[in-house]
Every structure is written in C-alpha cells, then in structure tokens.
Design a protein that fits this description.
- Residues 6-169 form the Glycosyltransferase 2-like domain.
- It is found in: Endoplasmic reticulum membrane.
- Belongs to the glycosyltransferase 2 family.
- The protein has helices at 19-28, 45-55, 71-82, 104-113, 136-153, 171-176, 187-202, 207-210, 231-247, 264-270; strands at 4-10, 32-39, 60-65, 89-93, 119-123, 131-133, 164-168, 211-215, 218-220.
- With 271 residues, it is an alpha/beta fold.
- It has a single domain (4-270), classed as Spore Coat Polysaccharide Biosynthesis Protein SpsA, Chain A (Alpha-Beta Complex), CATH 3.90.550.10.
- Strands 3-2-1-4-7-5-8 form a seven-stranded mixed sheet, sandwiched between helices.
- Strand 2, helix 2 and strand 3 form a beta-alpha-beta unit.
- Helix 5 packs parallel to helix 9 (231-247) and helix 7 runs parallel beside helix 9 (231-247).
- It starts with a strand and ends with a helix.
C-alpha cells in the first residue's frame, strides 16, 4: 500500500475541526499521515493541533505559520514539506471535511492503478446515487467559473475548485509548489496553468494524459465557509492574471525551473 501525506490548511478552525475523524482515519489507514498547517489562527486552533500531534506524532504533524498568509500559501508551504518527506503521494484536503476522509484511499488507488497519472482531482458532479449537497447559488456560480477556467486552460476540466487533490511525488509536481502563487482564491487553477507551462517549456507530459478527475460519491457544504459569493468576482480577475502570467502565446520564459531530483525513492535515500 502506498504511503501518503495529506496537508490540511487551517485558519480559525476551532469550531469546525473534526479531531475524532482524523484519529479514526489514521487507525484504519496507518500508511497515511496528516500535516496540519496553522495559518496564523487567532483562536484555539493551534492548541488543538498541537494536542492532536502529541496524541500520535507518527501520524500527525503541525506546521505553524507566524501570521495569516492565506490558503494558497498555507497549502503551498505544507505541500513543499510533504513532497520532500519520502512518501509516494502528497495532497491537500479542506479542513471542514466537505469531502470525507474515507475518499482518500480512492484517490490513492487511482494513482496506484494508473502509473501514467500524476494528479487526481476531486470533482463535485451531482448525479443520481451520489450525495453532493451544495448551495444552489454557489453551484451555478461555480459552473460559470469552471467553464471560464476550462477555456483559459484549454483543458476539458469539470471542477477546478474542489478542495480534495492528491499528487504523485515527482519533479514536475514538486515544481508546481516551488514558488509563491500569484492568486489566493483560485490557486488550484494556477497549479494547472503552471503544469501547462511545464508542458510547453520542458516537454513534460500533457495534462490531458496525467490529470484524472474523480467524481465524488459524497460532498457537502459545511457551515462557516470563508468563501463568499462576491469572491467569484475576484476569481475572474485572478483568472485574467493567470492567463497573462502563464498561458499567453507571447510568453518567452517559464515561471521556474524543473528540479533535478524528485522521485519518492530518491527522496527517501536522501533522507
């Protein structure tokens, strides 16, 4: 069974963090562990996370950021650490568990069964027989944005913004998190734009061949979400900045360079 670290960005999650769910999960899946990133919380989140780590330091770790830097940077710093920890897969998950933790093995199974795939993205597709509970307004705004993102990325992707994603440890994915994001609300789209740029400048595999969208069997809106309807307006401006920075045809230089070493096996040997 493949090993994995899941990054959980946390900002003032004192009232929403389901500690018992995380403890139950690691007992049933000892090959997986969690890295919680405390993004400068002002409530008791830091204390709760430290207690959780003390209860099982082999499966729980905490990265404390001194001040609030936003979800994008919290995820990036957590993923940088996870991608260099000697595991097979690394991903990030929303702290509110809108996507249940029990879905993680299904994400891992896709990467295990399809070695050509580099990342698995959760997709909130409302189909009969699936429990996808989402506010109607957010659903329709999300569909409009997803269509715009698909056009900009030139990728037939259904859901860029689901907060459940898992990545294979390789040099391309390490590169995706190597520098700070331009955006905060839609850094998920920026990740894919960075991958498009690697494809263009370094002859990396096409996204169409390496990305797999996994339709979720269960997802629900959780009260207390920090994303508001007016944030969708900000998202469209951020989408324009992504196009200009990564995807415009006249671009001459990539945003970064590929690292020389990045496989999970090489990382383990280095450790």
């Amino acid at each position: 069974m493949s090993s994995a670290i899941i990054v959980i960005p946390c900002y003032n999650e004192e009232k929403r963090l389901e500690v018992l769910q995380f403890r139950k999960y690691v007992l049933q899946n000892p090959q997986h562990s969690f890295l919680f990133v405390n993004d400068g919380s002002s409530d008791r989140t830091a204390l709760i996370l430290d207690d959780l780590k003390d209860s099982n330091p082999d499966r729980f770790d905490v990265l404390h950021l001194t001040h609030n830097q936003g979800k994008a940077e919290a995820v990036r710093q957590g993923m940088q650490q996870a991608l260099h920890a000697g595991v097979d897969f690394a991903g990030f998950w929303d702290a509110d568990l809108a996507t249940p933790l029990e879905m993680i093995p299904q994400f891992a199974a896709q990467l295990e069964q399809m070695p050509e795939r580099s990342m698995v993205l959760g997709a909130r597709v409302k189909l009969l027989g699936r429990q996808i509970e989402r506010q109607q307004l957010r659903h329709y705004l999300g569909r409009i944005f997803a269509t715009a993102a698909s056009i900009v990325l030139q990728l037939p992707i259904y859901d860029t913004q689901c907060g459940a994603k898992l990545f294979r440890v390789n040099r391309e994915n390490q590169c995706l998190f190597s520098t700070r994001f331009l955006t905060n609300w839609i850094f998920d789209v920026e990740l894919l734009a960075r991958a498009r740029q690697l494809e263009r400048f370094f002859d990396c595999p096409r996204l169409e061949d390496t990305v797999y969208e996994l339709p979720l069997t269960c997802w629900k809106d959780v009260a207390g979400s920090k994303v508001k309807p007016h944030d969708f307006v900000k998202a469209f401006f951020e989408l324009c900045s992504i196009y200009w920075r990564y995807l415009r045809p006249s671009l001459k230089l990539p945003y970064t360079q590929l690292p020389e070493h990045a496989s999970a096996e090489e990382t383990r040997k280095a450790a």
